[in-house]
Amino acid sequence: MSFVAHVFGWFTTAANWTGPQGIPTLFWHQLELSVAVVLGAIVLGGGLGVVLGHTGRGGLVAVNAANAFRAVPTLALLTLLAIQPAISLKWNGFLAAWIALTALAIPPILTNTYVGMREVDADVRDAAKAMGLTGGQVLRTVEAPLALPFVMAGVRTASIEVVATSTLAAYVSYTDLGTYVITGLNTNDSVVAFSGALLVAAMAGMATVSLSLLTRALTPLPLRHRGRTDALARDPTVGRRAATVNI
Amino acid sequence: MRFRRSLISGVLALAAATVAVPALTAGASVSSSSSKPSIVIGSTNFEEQAIVSNIWADVLKKAGYNVTVEPSLGTRAIVVPAIEKGQIDLEPDYAASLLGFLHGGNPQPAGDIITTAIPADQKALASYGVTVLPASKALDTNVFAVTKATASKDHLTTISSLKPYASKLTLGGPPECPTFAGCEPGLKKVYGLTFAGFKSLDEAGPLSVAALKNGEVQVVELFSSDGNVVSNNFVALTDNKHLEGADYIVPVIRKSVDTSGVASVLTGIDAKLTTTAISKLNLDVTSQQEQPAPVAQAWVKSVDG
């Protein structure tokens, strides 16, 4: 039987879909961890990015510090946390995994939020102030909507990194799709390892698609047709001509 | 541990086939003029085997043999061909894992019990002029451990004795335990044990030790001889139905140096080399950062005068 057939056989085995080691359980565990990590990173990294971007002070230092932090290997951090008695084994390994992965997810979100905030046209910001908007109002109604596409790009990058890397959590007693990968590697069963990797890839794909849709939904209407549709938007005759043909 | 090591050996087998061990040929080709043969002991780069190599070297030197130790030759995939070709004369190995290695990396049923493992090893090595001497008392394999408190409360000594309690106990082990034949499925099939639950931990590492210590699990898979069992005062339950391979440390020796004198020296010291003894020596090397040779020397002095 070919390798592909073995993998297909694994996915169609009923026993792999039930119980504490079944696909739904482990998929759910990974999703839970990934969502908790990304939410945590949005609050921490995004929050800091907003403050730094809004005030415009100390941002470069913070962003560079966060980026330097990207060099810390997640596996090393996980192992370090896993042997701390206060963190080790807490909530079935969730805590250690959450801290290590949040540290991984903060830099892209922080950087993108900061850059997004700084990219807001100074004239627009000044105009808003001139109209008498307070600092908070400027942030909410002008800066946040304009920075949103940048922020969401950071969230998407972070999410894919987190979904892919959370397989490491299986090394610190958390059970998720990484359990399949580790089991496969430790028992020389490449079918199980590959099937686990396929599931991780599927989740990463799901994350990209759903975050793209979310970004679109959150982006204010006037900003939505930038990019590829710019040319069309600028040339009003194109749409009109098409409409005429349709009638 | 055995299992993973044999995997690595398998991966390296191809590389090993092309790797010569030129440094050794000189030592091995020296034939002794006296009645006592010169012996070259080779070892993989696993600390435990390095310690045992040095122990044997020490006692053989004391008995008047001319001994050279070639440490850290690499994996089993290098050391076993080296002894088959006569580049080394003696190496410490593990009865069941060696048998699996000699059969293309496939674990053999004969390896489950030491009394069948050694004859099977001898048979597989006979055509190379290599044989295997009786086993030491040191076993390096996966064991299921409980705390001393649990063991004395429920009178636990063997894995079988867990039977009445298993349904109330949580088992801990590496992530692959629920599907790996030597772990949870084996405990169910061979011993009829069904646990209250399973908790995924690590490969007999700090998480496993911590989880057993603080009571998150009551039974945990560890390695018999890496020192975790001894240093934490855990009780390793006897594998009375032979779920795991009989990985006792055995002398693998070329018949040309297997004189009655050499054999009696080796079996004499091996009778004192217990799992507990080697665990303590392993601890000295791995956590005290000591070198295998002085650790071995000190131990031989303590047991052999």
Task: List its traits.
heterodimer; A: 247 residues; mainly alpha; MetI-like fold; 76% helix; elongated; disordered C terminus; B: 305 residues; alpha/beta; D-Maltodextrin-Binding Protein, domain 2; 2 domains; 5-stranded mixed beta sheet; 3-stranded antiparallel beta sheet; 13 helices; 10 strands; globular; disordered N terminus
Percent of residues of chain B in helical segments?
40-55%
CATH class of chain A: Mainly Alpha
Shape of chain A: elongated
Report how far the terminal alpha carbons of chain A are from each other: 58 Å
| Class of secondary structure makeup of chain B | alpha/beta
Corresponding CATH superfamily of chain A: MetI-like
Quickly count the domains of chain B.
2
Beta content of chain B comes to 5-15%
- How many domain units of chain A? 1
Description:
The complex is a heterodimer of chains A (247) and B (305). Chain A is mostly helical and 247 residues long. Chain A has a single domain (22-227), classed as MetI-like (MetI-like fold), CATH 1.10.3720.10. Chain A contains 12 helices and no strands. Chain A has helices at 3-11, 23-55, 59-69, 74-82, 94-119, 122-130, 135-165, 177-186, 190-218, 221-224, 230-234, 236-246. In chain A, α4 (74-82) packs across α5. Chain B is an alpha/beta fold. Chain B folds into 2 domains: 2-139 and 245-304, D-Maltodextrin-Binding Protein, domain 2 (3-Layer(aba) Sandwich), CATH 3.40.190.10; 142-237, Osmoprotection protein (prox), domain 2 (D-Maltodextrin-Binding Protein, domain 2), CATH 3.40.190. Chain B has helices at residues 2-18, 22-29, 47-62, 76-84, 95-102, 114-125, 148-154, 184-191, 206-213, 228-231, 260-270, 275-286, 292-304; strands spanning 38-42, 66-70, 90-94, 130-132, 142-146, 170-173, 197-200, 219-223, 235-237, 249-254. In chain B, the strands form 3 sheets. A 5-stranded mixed beta sheet of chain B has the order 7-6-8-5-9. A 3-stranded antiparallel beta sheet of chain B has the order 3-10-4. In chain B, α3 crosses α13. Chain B starts with a helix and ends with a helix.
